[in-house]
Amino acid sequence: MPAHQHRHTRGEPGIPRCLDCGAGSVSNAIDSGALVNYLSSASGPLHGEIRVPGDKSVSHRAIMLASLAEGRSQISGFLEGEDTLATAAAFAAMGVRIETPSASERIVHGVGLHGLRAPSHTIDCGNAGTGMRLLTGLLAGQKFSSTLSGDASLSKRPMRRVIEPLSQMGACITSETGGLPPLQIDGGANLIGIDYRLPVASAQVKSAILLAGLYAQGETIVHEPHPTRDYTERMLAALGWPIEFSAGYARITGGHRLRAGAIRVPTDFSSAAFFLVAATLVPGSDLLLREVGMNPRRTGLLAALRLMGADIVEENPRELGGESVADLRVRSAPLHGIDVPIALVPDMIDEFPILFVAAAAAKGRSVIRGAAELRIKESDRIAVMAKGLRELGITIEETPDGAIIEGGILRGGAVDAIGDHRCAMSFAVAGLIASDVVQVRDCANVATSFPGFVNLANRCGFVLQLESA
Ligand SMILES: O=C(O)C1=C[C@@H](OP(=O)(O)O)[C@@H](O)[C@H](O)C1
Ligand SMILES: C=C(OP(=O)(O)O)C(=O)O
Q: Is there a single domain that holds both residue 386 and residue 246?
């Protein structure tokens, strides 16, 4: 099927989706089956100027904190992806009025810290680990009880990492065996602050604790083994909540108020990542990515690609709504393998699937270590990428916390993204430099983080088509 025709499907959470124009524009969507494949073929040089959609992490937090603020907040640059739409639907179900003046804007009529109402049904977080873990913290502080569920992938993801610290704060949360969703969160707990050392670097766990801390008596302190993205801390500060934070540390006290305000969401570095690698790998490419979010806790891939020999220039660096952004100019360049520095891992945790593709196309060996968290994302990303790239002729050894990848020539073939959005887009990039067409199976979940990916990719020269499964 040609990529310019719009393809509608229905995914796991039952939210209609459109792979081409974004999930918000699909109220009349037809359910044509959950499985969608990509066909990706060798392309000529990639050219042009593009702007990727809004940041997923910031969009989740913007809806949550604007809902708890007092008064009307205006969110611009909002990501209209399925993950963040599920979060918006959760707050609507708890009585928050959210208007949609345009696809990338939301007006949130905040109800104040204690103004949420009990939802009449289970809250469906869809595919979103961020949505579920942050909501667990926030709901632990409510007077009412609630239940959170997710799709098949989210139902396998570990929630003990949030249940444990929240229980120490006094929350009462019941899970399925093994700490898996659905989660039942009892209302009416009197939370007390804790001083918690995270066993793994996780912005989601840190944020869940801080959101519970808004409702807790006394002070809540989080220490991280490695600094992670600090959007929750920055947004709390911007909306007037007293907070002290630095790399790897955050401290708040409960019982203050959030002021409504304007929240500008930067574009998502994680979405830009696919284009950074694609333009690096396809000879003759020269692509400009406008206004990319450059929070240093997100740009580890840029450092890794530069170590591999990539030619990526930051133009016009500036501040926008309290976040650093820059235009990124990428010209193709030959890559060589590297040992990815472990210190970069948390700053590029979502970029490993596309880094696997860069390493597969590089000269020589790349080694990834210290990234065991990849095994518990939307899929086991080490296993999925290793299997797929082997299918395309690359030699990869999996290790418990990473992989050893021998760069080589990619051939065509069929690979399975098993519903993981980042693996799907990464394999689509692999197809651009493969000797024959690459069929990528099970790509519908790209709409969770990057609605419009296929159209944008085709606009700058990808040869990428949708195929119904
Ligand atoms: O806080 C966030 O918005 C996120 C944190 C990361 O997860 P972990 O906290 O599990 O590392 C990341 O993988 C996810 O895509 C978004
Ligand atoms: C891991 C991811 O997100 P989440 O944990 O929110 O599902 C991701 O987007 O790569």
A: no
Instruction: State yes or no: pLDDT of 35 exceeds 90.
Output: no
Looking at the structure, do residues 181 and 295 belong to the same domain, yes or no? no
CA 138 to ligand 2 centroid distance, Å: 18
Q: How confident is the model at residue 256 (pLDDT cuts 50, 70, 90)?
A: very high
Asked if the structure places residue 3 within a domain, the reply is no
Alpha-carbon span 358 to 113, nearest angstrom: 45
Which residue, judged by its Cα, is nearest atom 13 of ligand 1? 350
* Residue 153 CA, ligand 1 centroid: distance in Å: 15
Residue in 83, 350, 380, 420 annotated catalytic: 350
Q: Are 382 and 349 in contact (CB under 8 A)?
A: no
Q: Cβ(269)–Cβ(295) under 8 Å?
A: yes
| Nearest residue by C-alpha to atom 3 in ligand 1 | 57
**Which alpha helices (DSSP H) does 264-299 contain, by range?**
269-281
Q: Is residue 2 part of a domain?
A: no
129 lines ligand 2 (CB under 6 A): yes
* Residue-number span of the structural domain to which 229 is assigned: 56-264
Q: From the CA of 131, give the closest atom in ligand 2.
A: 6
Instruction: Tell me the H-state helices in 362-412.
Output: 381-391
Chain position carrying tokens 């060798």: 42
CB-based contact 264:76 (threshold 8 Å):
yes
Give 339 or 23, the one with higher predicted confidence. Answer: 339
Residue among 31, 7, 27 at smallest CA distance from 18: 7
Tokens 């509608």 found at: 8
In a domain, 76, yes or no: yes
Distance CA 48, CA 290 (A): 10
Total number of domains constituting the chain: 2
* 199 and 303 fall within a common domain: no
Same structural domain, 251 and 302: no
Structure confidence at residue 369 (pLDDT): 98
Q: Catalytic annotation on 268?
A: no
Q: Which residue has the tokens 């790998």?
A: 281
Q: How far is the CA of 215 from the centre of ligand 1 (A)?
A: 23
Tell me the pTM: 0.94
Interaxial angle between packed helices 381-391 and 421-432, expressed in degrees from 0 to 180 and rounded to the nearest 10: 20
Q: Give the range among 33-47, 103-117, 342-356 with minimum mean pLDDT.
A: 33-47
Q: Give the confidence band of 392 by pLDDT, cuts at 50, 70, 90.
A: very high
229 lines ligand 1 (CB under 6 A): yes
Q: Which atom of ligand 1 is nearest to the CA of 200?
A: 11
* 207 touches ligand 1 (CB under 6 Å): yes
The number of the ligand nearest the C-alpha atom of 128 reads 2
> Which ligand 1 atom sits nearest the alpha carbon of residue 161?
10
Distance 278 CA to ligand 1 centre (A): 24
